[in-house]
Predict the structure.
Amino acid sequence: MAMTTEGPKPASRGAGAEGRLQTEEMILNVGPQHPATHGVFRLLATIDGEILINAEPVIGYMHRGYEKLVEQRDYRQITNLVSRMDWLSGINNELPLAMAVEQLMEIEVPPRAQYLRVILCEMNRILNHLMFFASFGAELGAITPTFYAFREREDIQRVMEATTGGRMHFGFFRPGGLKEDVPRGFVDEALKGVRQVIERLPDYENLLVGNEIFKQRTIDVGVLDREAAYSYGVTGPIARGSGIDMDIRKDEPYLVYDKFDFDVCSAPNGDCFDRFWVLVGEVGESARIVEQAIEDLPPGPIMGKVPRVVQAPAGEVYVRTENPLGELGMYLVSDGDRRPYRLKIRTPSYSNVSALSHVLANTYVSDMIAILGSFFFVLGDIDR
Amino acid sequence: MTRPGAITPPEALDRVEETLGPWVEEHKLNFGAVDFICKPENLVRVMRRLRDSEHLGCVFFTFLSGVDRSELGEGGGGLEVLIHVYSPEFAIHVTVHVPVDPAAPECPSISGIYKGALWHERETHEMFGILFPGHPHLTTLYLPEDFEGHPMLRSFKLPTRVVKAWPGAKDPEEAAAGGR
Amino acid sequence: MFDITLATWQILVIKVLVILTVVPLGALVGGYAEHKVMAHLQHRLGPMYPGGWHGWATTLADGIKFLLKEDIIPAAADRKVFSFAPAAIMVPIIMTYLVIPIDRNLVIEDLDVGLFYLLAIGSLSTIGLLMAGWSSANKYALIGALRSAAQLIAYELPIVLAAAVVAMLAGSLSLIDIVEAQNFPFAVWPPGIGLVAFLLFTIGAVAEMTRVPFDMPVAESEIITGPFTEYSGMRYIFSHMFAEMGHMVAFGGIAATLFLGGYKPIVPLRILEFIPGVFWFAGKTMFMIFLFLWIRPTFPRVREDQLQKFAWKFLIPVGLVLILATGAWVLYV
C-alpha cells in the first residue's frame, strides 16, 4: 500500500478566461465551540478545498486575569488560584509559586516534603499525559485508547484524591512544604498504581503507535523545526519532539530530581508522531521516578520553618519548573507584603500554541486536527 | 547533572558584560540569572547580539511582559518591559529590563528576532498600554477590542475591590487597603 | 406450502409492511449491538438500565427521544431541500432490503438482475447527502457532503468489481442463483480469489457506510457530523443514525448472500440442512455486522487524501486484476 505523504498543493487559481476552473478561498471558523479544541479556542482557517492555507488562533475566551487577581490576594490564596490555570496538572502549577516564595524567604523545605512533592508532581504528570494520550487518539478517530487511558488514570487519581482531597484542583503545596502528610497506605497504593502503568504501557504503544493508519496520519505531519521551536519558546513534549533535549528536571534539577535515574525522552523529526512518542515515553519515565522516590522516601516533618504570616521579602526571582506541558515559570516581584507586587506567569501552553499558525500553514484540514491534538494544550493555561 | 556545556552564573555575567558592554547598565546576578537594564533604543541590537553571539547563544525565548513599578516604594521606578531569554547551549538565563516612558510608553518590537514575542507583545500592549513599533499585527489578544484601559497598570483598580472590602481580610487596615 | 390466493395489491401491502418492520427493527438491533459490542471491546459495560435486562431498550429509548425533539431548520437553509434530504438518504437504503433472499423461497422480490439493482440503488443515497450538505448553508456540512460524495464514488468501484467477480463465478445476476451456486461459500472457494473479493467488498462496504476508519465525511472531531451538522430531532436520526444502522444491516445481508453462501449451510453436508435457511442467513449476517462493529473501535481515521489514494491506487487495481484472475478460473478450471 503506497500512501506516501506529500505536501498539499493549493489548487491553481486564476482567470476564468483561460478556461481553468475558478476557485475561491473559504474562511472556516473552527471554534470557539468545536469538538477538537478542548474548550473555547477559535481558529480562523482559510481553506482552499481540503487544503488549509493559513490559520490564526484566536484566544481569550476564558481569560480570567489571574495576573491582576494575584495582586489582590495573599500567597495562601494564590495557591488555589494558580491550581486552576492548567486544570489537568493542578499540583504542578502550585509548585513554582511555592518555590518562588521559598527562594525569596530563604526557607528550607524538609526532605520528606521534597520527596512527596516529586511523587505528587510526577503522578500528576502521568495523569496529564494519559489524558492527552486519550484525547489525541479520539481526535484521530480511535475511540478505544480513551477508555484504556482512563482505566489507569483512575487508579492514580484515587491515590491523589485520598492524599489531597481533590481530583483536579489539589491546593496541597504551601510555601515551606505541604498542607499535611500523606495518609496511611499511600505508599502501597501509589506503587500499585504506577506499576500498573508501567506494566500496561506496551499495550498502549501497540494500540496506537504501532498502528499503520496512525503512522500515516502523523508521520511527517505538522513539522515544527528546531529553530522555530526555540524562537517561539516552545517547551515540554512538543519541543522534545523537535529534537530539543531541554528538560528542566534534568538541566537545573529543582526539588530532589537529581537523586533519581530517569531519561529525557526526545525525538528528532518534530512531527505529530514524534510529539506523541515523547508523550508516551514520558509516562514511563515519570512512573520510574515515582517508584524510586517512594523507595527512598525519608521520614520527618513536612513543613519547614515558616512564619505565621507569609510575607516574601522585597526582591525579584524567576522560578521555572517542568510542567507536564512544558516550562512553567513565575517571575515574582515582591515589595515585602503578604501579597505579590507582580507575578508574571509564563505558562507552557501559551508559548506552545503561539507556534501553531507557523505549523498549520499549508496542511490539510484533517491534518489540522492531528496537529491541534498533538500540541497538547489546555485552554485555561493559555488564557489564565 | 546540569546541561553539558553549561557555564556558571559568574562566567555568564562576564560573557554578557564582554559581549554587550556599552549598551547595557547595572548588570548583576539575581538567583543565577544575568540581570541588566537596557534602554529601548538599544534593545533590538542587544537582543540580536544575545541571540546570535556564539558566546551566548540565547536562542530560546522564555517570555516578555511588563512591570509597573510605580508603587514599589523607594528604588521603584516607572513602567518597564521585562524580557527573559535562555541559552540552551550554555544554560545562561538573561533577564532584560527595558524602562519605558510612562507618559508615552514605547518599546521597539523584538518579534523579528524572537517570533514568540508576537503574542507576548500583544498581551503586554493591551495590559500595560505599551506600544511596540515594528510589530506586524499589534491588536488585542485577550481583551475585547472595545475594552477601555490597561488592566495591569497599578492605576487600574479592580472595581469589586473598590466597592466591597476584601472578604479575606483579617485586619481592619487590610480591608481598607483592599482596592490598592 | 400455503394455499392462499391474494390480490396483487394485497401482496404489495404485505411486502411494504414487512419491509417497514424489518428495517427499523434491524436498525434498532444494530444500534444496540453497536453499543454493547463496542463497550465490551473497551472494557465497559455499555448501557445497562433502559428496559431492565442489559439495557435492551436503549436504542428504542434513544429513538423515541429523538422523535420527540424539536425539529430545527436553520434560517439560512434551503427549506425544501433540507427537509427532503433525509428521505433521499433513507429510501435507497430501505430499497436494498427488497432483493436480499432470506431463505430459498423467502425473498420479497426475486429480480433477475438483483445484483445490478443492489449496486444501482446503493449509490443513490449520495444524492441525499449532497442535498443535505448543500442545503444546510453550513461550511462544515458542505465539506462533509463533498467528502462523502467523493468517497462514495471512489469506494463504489471496489464494491462493483467484487460483485462482478461473484457474478462471473455464479454466472447470474439473480441473488437466488448466486446463493445456489455456492456449494462452498465464495469467500472460501475458489481459493484466494473469493477471499480477496470478499475483503475488497468488506472494505468498500465500511467506506460506503462512512464508518471508522473511513469516516472522514462525518469525522466528529473535524467537521462535527459532516452533512448532518445542522440536523436535529427526527431528521437527524433518520438521516444519520438510522441510515447508518440500516446500511450496516443491509450490507451484512448482502455480504452474507454474495460471499458466505446466504441461506445455505457453510459446508454442503446433509446433516446441516435440517437447520432452516433463515438461521444460516441470520447467523452470517450477524457475523458480518460484528465484523463491522469490531473494526470501529480498533482503528483511527484515514485522512481524506489517503482514503482516495487507497481506493484509486490500491483497491481498484487489485479489483481489476481479480477480474482477470476470475476470468481465467471460470474458463480453465
Observations:
- DSSP finds 15 helices and nine strands in chain A.
- The two ends of chain A are 46 Å apart (CA to CA).
- The CA atoms of residues 97 and 135 of chain A lie 29 Å apart.
- Residues 1-7, 9-17 of chain A have pLDDT under 50 and may be disordered.
